[in-house]
Amino acid sequence: MDSKKNKVTIPVVYLQGSACSGCATSSLCTEYPSIKNILLQDIVPGFTLEFLFHPVIMTASGNLSMEVLEEVAKTKGLVLIVDGGIPTKDSGIYCVTGEKNGKKSTILQEVLQLSPNALMVIALGTCASFGGIAAANPNPTGSKCIGDILSENNIKTPYINIPGCPPHPDWLFGTIENVLLNGLENVKLDDFNRPKTYFGKLIHENCPNRAWFDEGKFAKKFGDAGCLYELGCKGPITYADCPIRQWNGKTNWVIGSGAPCNGCTSPEYPDYVGDFYEKIIDVETPVNEKKI
Questions:
Q1: What is the average per-residue pLDDT within 152-158?
Q2: What are the φ/ψ torsions at residue 104 (nearest 5 degrees)?
Q3: What are 97-128's pLDDT values in tens digits?
Q4: pLDDT at residue number 283
Q5: Under DSSP, is residue 249 helix (H, G, I), strand (E, B) or coil?
Q6: How confident is the model at residue 74 (pLDDT cuts 50, 70, 90)?
Q7: I need a labelling partner for 225 at 20 to 30 A (CA). Which of 58, 118, 183, 198 fits?
């Protein structure tokens, strides 16, 4: 952490594991603050983020980019953001970040090298937070989430899960802002290490279809008026503020577009939340049991 002219510069390393770049792309679409503010100006007054490594937007590649990671490994107090699952089978060879001294360097090796000295680790997206699609059955690469990797290797660095497929950019940068302004110890997390600010309420609680649910009026096919519960909506078991925050400049969100919530911020996603378009079964629903 460097202080220049009363400003603090926070070094940031963004690593991608078994990922689709959806989480990276979503985060780059941030509006308040804009990506310009984040990359070139203060994210909050007095604090600047310096992205030292980001596979999607950095200009360096090959040996030059890997040299950056070598130097960064000596840096203390960085924010490590990890997007995607971490393959562990066969020494993690199924996800390679690059080469060092002519040898492949895996995402597993990079996480183990960088996380001990980090200020915090942010698991961005459901794959990094809980395993997600990368670790879905049959999980041939042995992909694991950040929490498991840190725990199994006795790394005590605090970590925050920001799930979503993809996560909203506000969830990432709002959490970083909260840490910088109030301190990591004052960020309230739930039992799954998710920030309560964004994952403190069920989607169902603020869903515009809630009145239909309470009346027992359920859509039987897409396009019908009514709650989408019987068409597979996972809103009654999914914690996120999507109904309030919405997406793409509040243009729309999943249920607003007529599709059911698929539960992508849940630890059980995608294997154990049920088929996307089938009613939830064998899951305890915490709201209005008499209606379902």
A1: 97
A2: -65, 135
A3: 999 888 999 999 999 999 999 999 999 999 99
A4: 59
A5: coil
A6: confident
A7: 198
Distance separating alpha carbons of residues 287 and 274, to the nearest angstrom: 18
Query: Does the pLDDT at position 289 exceed 70?
Result: no
What would the pLDDT profile of 251-273 be if each residue is shown by its tens digit? 999 999 999 999 999 999 998 86
Alpha helices in 3-138 (DSSP H): 22-28, 35-40, 62-72, 107-114, 126-130
Instruction: Establish how many alpha carbons lie within 13 A of residue 208's alpha carbon, considering only the half-sphere containing its beta carbon.
Output: 14
Residue 17's nearest CA partner among 153, 160, 124, 120 is 124
Cβ pair 122, 160 in contact under 8 A: yes
Q: Where are the alpha helices (DSSP H) in 183-260?
A: 196-199, 210-215, 242-245
Please give the structure tokens belonging to residue 84: 């995607």
Bond into 260 cis (ω within 30): no
Q: Are strands 2-4 and 7-16 parallel, antiparallel or unpaired?
A: antiparallel
Tokens of 78: 């960085």
- Cβ-contact 74, 6 below 8 angstroms: no
Contact 253/208 with Cβ under 8 angstroms?
Answer: no
Rg (CA), the chain: 20
Where do the domains of the chain lie?
Answer: 2-196, 201-292
CB 265 within 8 A of CB 199: yes
Provide the pairing of β-strand 120-124 with 103-106: unpaired
Question: What tokens does 268 get?
Answer: 């059980």
What's the mean pLDDT when you consider all of the chain? 91
First to last CA, the chain: 52
Q: Which CATH superfamily is domain 201-292 in?
A: Cytochrome-c3 hydrogenase, C-terminal domain (4.10.480.10)
Assign domain 2-196 to its CATH architecture.
3-Layer(aba) Sandwich (3.40)
pTM of the model: 0.91
